[in-house]
Specification:
The protein is mostly helical. It has three helices and no strands. Helix 2 packs across helix 3.
Amino acid sequence: MFKGPHRIQCEWDWSALGSVSPLGRPDVGATRRVAPTARAGITASMALRLAAWLGTSPELWLGMQTQFDLWQAGQQPTPAIRPLECRAA
């Protein structure tokens, strides 16, 4: 199964930083309420924090979250939708 961006950070080796996860660290400024979990995705606020802390861009984190959300939505059955017909004026 595809993993969301919050899963990727958990696979990094955080042991050198003295923490299992960066999300509870005071220098990241994240609490359990704002930290992404298996049920909650990366928010814009968390993307900014991760980007500042890891030296990446917030767009990287939001892009991964968007890709994951689209993938999950694509796994669900969708109703038959007829395309909108454009008529000349």
